Amino acid sequence: MEFDYKFKGNSGVSSNNTSTDMSFSPDLNREPTFFVAKLQDSLNFREAMSALHDVVVSDMSFTPKDKSDYKAWLEGQESVWLAKLVAEKEKHQEQYDRVQKELNAIRSQEDTLLKPYYQAQRKYFDYLYKHDSDAWFVLDPVITVHPDEVFFECFSQDESSYGKLSCSYDTFKEIDEHSYGTTNIDYSEKLYDEFQKIRDYKETSFQIDPSGFEVQTELADDFKEEKIDLPD
Fold first, then answer.
1. What's the CA gap between 19 and 40, in Å, rounded?
2. Is residue 184 a part of any domain in this protein?
3. Residue 97 domain-assigned?
């Protein structure tokens, strides 16, 4: 199953001696969602976005170590251990039964502890499937422009952590164009480095770029399309 995303260029931060311009490219295949304003407190916003980045890149899934050397050594030891095991079969069988019983008890405790987590995860995915099918298939960073606030949401790479950064309208000044809604955004690792250019002595503009919705033509050079192929 393939999902198409189309962005007008890339999200980015540009800076000069007096100002910083921060622009996010929204997904043009969704309903028009945009927001243009200036930041009141640039440094706190920069640090909050940096913290959200830590969630995005987080991956606490198990990564097995390289055991190629150990396996090579193990092959040479198997015959020696097998002969010894046969000679002491009864002794080792008793030890195996005891360890297996302890292991079964630990696995039972693990299932009990993780059951609420898996139930909550399943409930969330079911909700997404019914109310926002795009988010159910691809858990990409999204921005929502809401009547009460603008907020960012994301999942970690291993999908075990969820992050949300909420910005009330007090965070901004000189609010200009805006249209309520939720959209995927073009978000890359490089964007984190760009956030570090924000300074408190420079005026910082913030926009979910509205220009991308003016003309949507696939022949334009500055349009970027992404296709995500997912298993059926």
1. 13
2. yes
3. no
Is the CB of residue 153 less than 8 Å from the CB of residue 163? yes
User: Can you give the pLDDT at residue 224?
Assistant: 36
CATH code for position 50: 3.10.150
Is there a contact between 184 and 26 (Cβ–Cβ < 8 Å)?
yes
In this prediction, the residues of the chain whose per-residue pLDDT falls under 50 are 1-3, 5-8, 136-139, 212-232
Q: Can you give the residue range of the structural domain that contains 164?
A: 2-59+133-229
Residue 144 φ then ψ, to 5°: -120, 125
Length of the chain: 232
Residue 182 belongs to some domain of the structure: yes
Nearest to 184 by CA among 142, 126, 226: 142
Q: Is 8 helix (H, G, I), strand (E, B) or coil?
A: strand
Contact between residue 18 and residue 12 where contact means Cβ atoms under 8 Å apart = no
What local confidence, expressed as pLDDT, does residue 83 receive?
A: 77
pLDDT tens for 61-120 read: 777 777 888 888 878 888 777 777 777 776 667 788 888 899 999 988 988 888 887 788
> What is the number of structural domains in the chain?
1
Structure-token pair, residue 185: 């955004």
**What span, in angstroms and rounded, lies between the C-alpha atoms of 191 and 71?**
42
Whole-number pLDDT of residue 115:
86
Residue 224 lies in a domain: yes
